[in-house]
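Final report, closing paragraph on structural work. Over the funding period we assembled a curated collection of sequence-structure pairs, and we close with a single example.
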Amino acid sequence: MAMTLGIISCGQNSKVEDRNASTQNPIMPIIYAGDTLSIYLTDYLPQVEDWNTLKFFTEPSYQVVGMENGILALIGDYTLSILTVLDEATGIKYDIPIVPKNNYEVGLVTKSYTDSTITIGVLNSYEHLQFRILWQDQRANEYVEYGQYEPQATITIEPEWRQGEGRTFIRVYALGDGKNLNDLLIPLENGKVVNDAAQLTRHDDQAQILYSLMIDRFENGNKKNDWKMNSPEVLDIVDYQGGDIAGITKKIKDGFFAELGITTIWISPITQNPWDAWGMNIFPNGNKYDNTKTYTKFSGYHGYWPIFATVVDKRFGTDQELQEMLATAHAHNMNVVLDYVANHMHINSPTLQQNPDWHTDSILPDGRRNFELWDEARLTTWFDVHIPTLDLERAEVCGPMTDSALFWLDKFAFDGFRHDACKHIPLNYWRELGRKMKQRYPNRHIWMIGETYGNTDLIGSYVKTGMLNSQFDFNIYHTAIDVFGKPNQSLTRMNQTIMESLAAYGAHHTMGNISGNHDKCRFISLAGGAVSWNESDKAAGWTRHIGVTADGDATKEAHAYRMAMLLELVNFTIPGVPCVYQGDEYGEAGANDPDNRHMMKFAGLNDQQADFRAKVQELAKLRRENMALIYGEYIPVTVNDNTLHFQRVYMGEVVDVVISLTGESSITINGKKVWTV
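Its predicted structure, as stored:
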């Protein structure tokens, strides 16, 4: 016996016109938190040029109560719904899901499919179950057959879905007894369900594995552009080391990235940085200056002090070398995303010299210096005295800076950006950049990930169709390093943070799951005790050599490698995009900046490092080859202090992941154990 759940149609033509569905990622849902909701339509429809040509339709549970200057006022109930937007100028209809911000629960799973149907498993018993189903940005006009006595639902694949060319997506949203259930994302290829990872390409965002590298510290491919300050004011560790764009090309050709399983390379900023030294660091250690302190200034080897926002720093290479690197990456089926700095420019930038009022005030109204006030003055604070924060809330500043970002897409075949310091940049910048990008490159696949530290509400506020695709999930990272690095921690907390992430960003988000980055102490040195959790991890690297452990104890070292591998296991098996920071794949030791930026080692690894790298390589291979690890649901099975056992399930394929603080950790696919540590 089956009962039928009706899906109300707004009565508009569901055919997608004048759009290449294969190039369009679905519009992200509206999250409704109650009361009157102000919706910036550019966050969802950045490609629309004239708001006056739009008409709106909603289900009875929601009501549009006003529209002015692209801002829509919406009020309704805590229920699933659809906001339908009809652009009368083009005849194109967009259906935007409205998802209430309710209690989150894993309640759905994909079970099986045919050419004409998809079977959805319902994991719990619900008295009231509500579905909303979309193909691309079009609402389904079908009914869902829901088994009253059998916990499953059947979705009929509509004829127009089967006519879609290239990659398209079915999305399923559900509400069960007032609880927001996990959404489903089902990829189609030419109208048929994708159930083979070999069908995925570098443009499938969920299938990415990201590798972060700092150009100057990666590989020297062209010694002709080598340059050092050779100044007594600049210690060698913060001087240029010779890595360059040609070195990246060389390692692509050598098969380094392919062997590791990387699909997307994130390169550090390449814009022109100053030729002289800036900043100051003083720390106890004794040297020729005063016999009590070590002093250094810094070069701009890292790329984060742009002098010119649209010029390749010649110490990294030429335009031609950059073009060759991008072409080589694409020929090897890899994306390249560029680290782009919009928040600030170097104080000697000709742009700032010509426009001295473009930056924010370095002095607050109460007389305090507006330096490093990350939260109190997050949109205006300066990172340092020589890198003023741009006043991007002003149109005359925002416009040129968004154009400078687009320059790198116009001139070079980059596949997207890693955006620096997102939370310090106002929302209007991201909206303008997103709008320009969607209108200028409507059929180009561009993926953008941002850097924001904060709670899920702050991080998620930038993740919109018209802004960023994703951000790095620092909350999962910080929880993971606590659980795996500190004593008396619980894996219950790890699962809780994962569930909070899924509730905030969706069950199929592309948030970045990091092993570390250029601003973090190497986790393996924290886990091994070489760096104490209670000390300054920046000072540690300046005052002593940092290894995995402080004393070379073999037991401590083995423990540190194991905990670091558990961090990698989490990153490669939970929803999101695994991100490997250069050197983390073999367990590079180090404190914080600049001790976490040693030159890469491609040879000469010790046995532990080589074994660690081999294990990470296996994880990447499992991730790339299993649809359940890419598009599957996250289902907790056993959660306690010492064990986290979860499943990833997609179309009947089941991957069991067991993470144990005290025993064996493993990956099992359809009952066969394939990976252990």
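Residues 1-23, 286-292 have pLDDT under 50 and may be disordered. The domain at 205-631 is CATH 3.20.20.80 (TIM Barrel). We thank the funder for supporting this effort.
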